[in-house]
Design brief:
One of its GO terms (cellular component) is extracellular region. Belongs to the neutral ceramidase family. By secondary structure, the chain is α+β, with helices and mostly antiparallel strands. The chain folds into three domains: about 1-35; about 40 and about 50-285 and about 320-430 and about 520-635, no CATH class; about 660-775, Immunoglobulin-like (Sandwich), CATH 2.60.40.2300. Helices cover about 25% and strands about 25% of the residues. Strand 26 (about 520-530) and strand 27 form a beta hairpin. The protein is globular, with a radius of gyration of 26 Å. The protein binds 2-acetamido-2-deoxy-beta-D-glucopyranose (3 copies).
Length: about 775
């Protein structure tokens, strides 16, 4: 049914866009002709803004209570693909890549229930994998277990909703763009983009096993290229293991870190290369909001076709004002082809770091102690250096992003191997607190209830620990003071089970005020022909990931009676559907560095995963049912929230929202590499997330038409939107918008604008905009 609908859609739409399509994609036409006969699936991609609250909310990843959002460097997006069987189109898989620290059980459960009410059972626990990129610069507070929301003052519903909404909208796009096409896969080595941050633990793996590999981290990038039969290339999803810790624990601007930046760079590259948006500068901004819905003072230009917008908002006109703004990137006028989607997905990320120069002591400048990552016995001073060091972390982020993007672009252009074969998937829930594991040597062992070891509190060389988890600690924040009283001492049995881990927090036995850590976790396999994605709810270390991939691959081959061969391409999608910290190998666990200390379910955690995945893979090949396992709890409605809302915004007398506190100097002129900086009186960004919009905009004056053309928005690498108050709790706040003139700038007259919303004491939120004086960009 879906297939015939898609084909009908194709015919109807063809009149409208085929001509422009041929012009638009002329460099690709050769390719399209060659490819069109090969369409063997229905494919669709989508992408949607999920940036969330850009103020006050703790950023997820470093557990640093002082690292709260204060603006945006780059927006965060949910990027999705769907692959369906052209004959039986209900047989399909959905993969979502989030610019978030991790997928989460809370997010998966809520997203599935949204998708269920929209599409019935089409997308469900079985065929959906939602994986996080592991950026450490996205708003937190969206996970449901206590331990992961301590530094965010508990749950933050606005963060949670932004993510679930973003996923839902991106899936709607992918669903509506589902049309005949094919997929190519490719793989290649990417050097100089990751190293191992716990090499001493890796070295404890057996020498004969280590001898099989050239590196102590995976250097392979795997890429899937999505080609629509008519539209040509619509997307690329790649997997490569590297932590999202290029931006360090002092950063307060929301950022997708190295993977988010790589995605943006590749999407821009595609557009420029294939002229997808060549008409951008000439495109007239569309004004589509019905006149009655225009708030005063807010310009309503939007560069997104209204039909697409309505489509993605579910066909309803009840658009929130927040989604009606200026965007620089949007599809070409009259093209129905959706924007190209590039996603950089996370894999067995556990012991990797993008800080490839290694870890050094801040005080002495010497290398840290190899085995303990300490300086003079202390961990706080030992910090990893990115490739740009001593230049700042933005520069390092850009380098690691560009390396991933460039490799992905090569793999994209040289991809030849077509994915062929059945679409299959299997998922189950496993209670990891109590798995009986039969080891290959016949020994029978068990996993344990979750617990965290002492090294957890020390953090890693990407972000030394700041977390004081001592029993009876009354120093923490409001949330910690409330929940810290529920800390428990581990039982003898638990101490024995977790050995040699010295237990810092016995999370698995702590269920008040609600569960501290998960025990029931989802594991998934999505298989499209020879391409296999393993959804794991954790950060697997390098060697853990290799063992799991090998086990699944050999099971699939052995059990398939010759149907599957060595061409199976198995990737791990990390931090998927749920989150349970790390999975180290048994041997790495003995060393008890951060990754071993954060392997929740004891020394045999990895063996339990391998055993359960082997069962899942066997069931998939044999087309057998597998027990769904115990249902994980949905704790979203029980959550405690302590982050205060916005009470009100105000400005000093004599000025109003959108007025300039700092303008550009009169008759200013700037060259490439210089930074333009303006400051506006503003309101709290939490009043309106401006989803798919922008807080800051650089506009260029088009001399022939006299119109201002949107040129760079707050998602662009060259702009930074910083939000600040002069004093905590002050109702007055400021938006600093800075723009570093990029190399490829078009010389001309520019100005900078700010969009925002402020809150009255009695609750109503009003939008405003402000504009700087114009200035000259000379280009050199
Ligand atoms: C690290 O620890 C191992 C095992 O205890 C020891 O053999 C090695 O010498 C240590 N390396 C350094 C550089 O301290
Ligand atoms: C974080 O990065 C900034 C900018 O690169 C740098 O000044 C600072 O020292 C770094 N801090 C840590 C703890 O790495
Ligand atoms: C700016 O330029 C105008 C016109 O060229 C000139 O009259 C004015 O004096 C200049 N102002 C400053 C502050 O340089």
């Amino acid at each position: 049914m879906e297939a015939s609908r898609a084909r009908r859609g194709l015919r109807q739409d063809c009149y409208v866009y085929c001509i422009s399509l041929i012009l638009l994609l002329s460099p690709l036409v050769g390719g399209i002709q060659g490819q069109s006969t090969d369409a063997n699936y229905l494919i669709g991609v989508g992408s949607y803004d999920m940036t969330g609250p850009a103020a006050d909310v703790n950023l997820m990843g470093y557990a640093n209570p002082e690292q709260n959002a204060a603006g945006i460097h780059m927006r965060l997006r949910a990027r999705s693909f769907i692959v369906a069987d052209p004959v039986l189109s209900s047989n399909r898989v959905l993969f979502v890549n989030l610019d978030a620290c991790m997928g989460a059980q809370s997010v998966t459960l809520r997203t599935l229930s949204r998708l269920k009410s929209r599409y019935g059972g089409l997308y469900n626990e079985q065929n959906v994998v939602i994986s996080g990129t592991h950026t450490h610069s996205g708003p937190g507070g969206y996970l449901q277990y206590v331990l992961y929301i301590v530094t965010s003052l508990g749950f933050v519903r606005q963060s949670f909703n932004a993510i679930v909404d973003g996923i839902e909208q991106s899936v709607i796009q992918a669903h509506e763009n589902l049309r005949p096409g094919h997929i190519l896969i490719n793989e290649g080595e990417l050097l100089m983009a990751n190293i191992n941050r716990s090499p001493s633990a890796y070295l404890n793996n057996p020498p004969e096993e280590r001898a099989k590999y050239s590196y102590d981290v995976d250097k392979t990038m795997v890429l899937a290229k999505f080609v629509d039969q008519e539209w040509g290339e619509v997307g690329a999803f790649s997997w490569f293991a590297v932590h999202g810790t290029s931006m360090n624990r002092t950063n307060t601007l929301i950022s997708g870190d190295n993977k988010g930046a790589a995605a943006r760079f590749m999407e821009d590259w595609y557009r420029e290369k294939y002229g997808e948006f060549s008409a951008l500068a000439e495109t007239e901004m569309l004004d589509f909001a019905p006149p009655g819905m225009r708030p005063e003072g807010l310009y309503l230009e939007r560069r997104y076709k209204s039909s697409d917008f309505l489509k993605s908002s579910g066909g309803k006109r009840s658009t929130k004002m927040s989604s009606i703004m200026h965007r620089v990137r949007s599809p070409m006028k009259d093209s129905l082809k959706p924007p190209f989607v590039a996603a950089f997905c996370q894999s067995n990320v556990g012991d990797t770091t993008p800080n490839i120069q290694g870890a050094f002591c801040l005080d002495t400048g010497l290398a840290c102690d190899f085995n303990h990552s300490t300086c003079n016995g202390k961990n706080e001073q030992c910090v990893g250096r990115g490739p740009a060091y001593p230049d700042d972390h933005f520069a390092s982020t850009k380098i690691i992003a560009e390396r991933q993007f460039k490799r992905a672009a090569d793999l994209f252009e040289s991809a030849k191997e077509q994915v062929v074969g059945k679409i299959q998937y299997k998922q189950t829930y496993v209670d990891f607190s109590n798995v009986v594991v039969k080891l290959p040597d016949g020994q029978v062992v068990k996993t344990c209830p979750a617990a965290i070891g002492f090294s957890f509190a020390a953090g890693t060389t990407d972000g030394p620990g700041a977390f004081s988890f001592k029993q009876g600690d009354n120093q923490g924040n409001l949330f910690w003071r409330l929940v810290g009283g529920f800390l428990k001492s581990p039982s003898k049995e638990q101490i024995e089970c977790q050995k040699p881990k010295p237990i810092l927090i016995d999370t698995g036995d702590m269920i008040a005020p609600y569960a501290w850590a998960p025990s029931i976790l989802p594991i998934s396999i999505l298989k499209v022909g020879q391409f296999v994605i393993l959804g794991v709810p954790a950060e697997f270390t390098t060697m853990s990931g290799r063992r799991l991939r090998d086990a699944v691959k050999s099971t699939l081959i052995e059990q398939s009676d010759g149907e599957m061969g060595d061409d199976l391409q198995v990737v791990i999608a990390g931090l998927a559907n749920g989150y349970s910290q790390y999975v180290a190998t048994f041997e790495e666990y003995q060393i008890q560095r951060y990754e071993g200390a954060s392997t929740l379910f004891g020394p045999h955690t990895l063996s339990a995963y391998i055993q359960e995945f082997t069962k899942l893979a066997t069931a998939l090949v044999k087309n057998r049912d597998i027990s769904p396992g115990p249902q994980p709890p949905d704790l979203v409605d029980k959550q405690l929230e302590f982050l205060p809302g916005v009470v009100l915004d105000s400005t000093p007398s004599g000025v109003t929202f959108g007025d300039l506190k700092q303008d550009v100097p009169a008759n200013a002129s700037y060259k490439i590499g210089e930074v333009v900086e303006v400051v506006f009186y503003t309101g709290c960004p939490r009043n309106d997330l401006l989803t798919e919009g922008t807080y800051g905009l650089v506009e260029r004056l088009d001399s022939s038409s006299g119109k201002w053309i949107a040129s760079y928005d707050d998602d662009d690498w060259s702009t930074r939107f910083s939000w600040y108050r002069l004093r905590t709790m002050s109702p007055g706040s400021f938006a600093k918008i800075s723009w570093e003139i990029p190399e490829n700038v078009q010389a001309g007259i520019y100005r900078i604008r700010h969009f925002g919303a402020y809150k009255h004491l009695f609750g109503s939120v009003k939008h405003f905009t402000g504009t700087s004086s114009s200035f000259v960009v000379s280009g050199v």
